[in-house]
Amino acid sequence: MKKNVIYLNDWLAIHPYTTVCSSDTFFVELANKLYAACHLEELPETFRKNLSLYVAAYLEDIISGLGLWQGFATAHARLYGRCLPFYPTGTDYIKGEVNLEDVRFIIWNTWQKAPYSHGYVNPLDTSILKLAQAFLPLLEEAYEVAPENELLKDYFAGYADEKEADRNLSWLFGHTYLTEPSMLPYIERVAPDDRFIIPTGPLALFLHEWIELLAGKQAACWKSFPRLYQEEKEMPESILQKNAEIYRLFTLWTGGRKIIYLNGYASLKRFLVEILQWPDDENHTLPQMKNCRNFVLMVDEQKGLLLAKDVCEYIADTENPYYDQEEASQNAFRMLTEEMLCPPDLLHYCIEKNLLPDAELPEVGEKMLVKLNADFIARHSLLYYYRGD
């Protein structure tokens, strides 16, 4: 008999309570069985343990009516018209039961987000499929006999007081099987109030968006919780007027276009000074960008000027003379995954207009999978740098 490597305290670490309940022992045993079947050697042991816990928690979620997985699938379907990224679901896919495609996604999500040095994980990697196929019989067997965790049923339907609500939101933000992977690199540095402005989980959802998915008709009781629903900060009128003038001058020169492509710093400086009428001094002409190859400038009537550097080669816009298909094949994927490479508004525009057709998975050269899932990949990879301003 193999020695257990996963214990109750490991299980409780991804739960919102600290006192053992009657169903916990069953799921810890399941997690150990999953770990024994987890032969994904590319994944360090710590994360293989995490993965085994997460897959066991997925089953617990389904059995107990927590609604976390269903909330994720619902949100994904609203955004993209299908239940899951990457993995098509056929007639044998049954909502509310264990599915191979779900398990494949959890494996991929855990592996891709694991904070150790590795490349982008191919969701279609055969090792993911083989591991999911190894896990599935264990889950199907457990599904028939697993006890409900009664504490988790309709868990977010309400709360006794603000202290309990705050504790539950902290768990949802960074310690569930679906949100912990995305927060592992950051959780120790996140201030309490930042939980409400940083998106979390595979779809980069804000906590209030998660609550609306999980609480359903009972979500109204969360409206009164301080800071959960953030009021949009209004820009000072002086800034709005300044940005409106930038927008007017920009679109006047471009004939209404909101994006231009410039080659070299001299072109950027000339545009800022001669077209936007900025002062010709180092406080306004961005001298720190003298060594950049090229620039994409985008204008918004309220936000003003947005700028990305050294990405012109990747954007297949008919108005972009610097687009280079070979360069794009090698590097356009970075725009979906690399923080601060591209302002969110420009990235959203490029995805919406299909301006990154050559973006492909590194090493495997897969383009169609990226095209079909580009927006999800960006959400999943960038989190705040996808959802923020």
TrEMBL record:
- InterPro entries of this UniProt entry? DUF3843
Note the Pfam families from the entry: DUF3843
Q: Which organism is it from?
A: Phocaeicola plebeius
Q: What is this protein called?
A: DUF3843 family protein
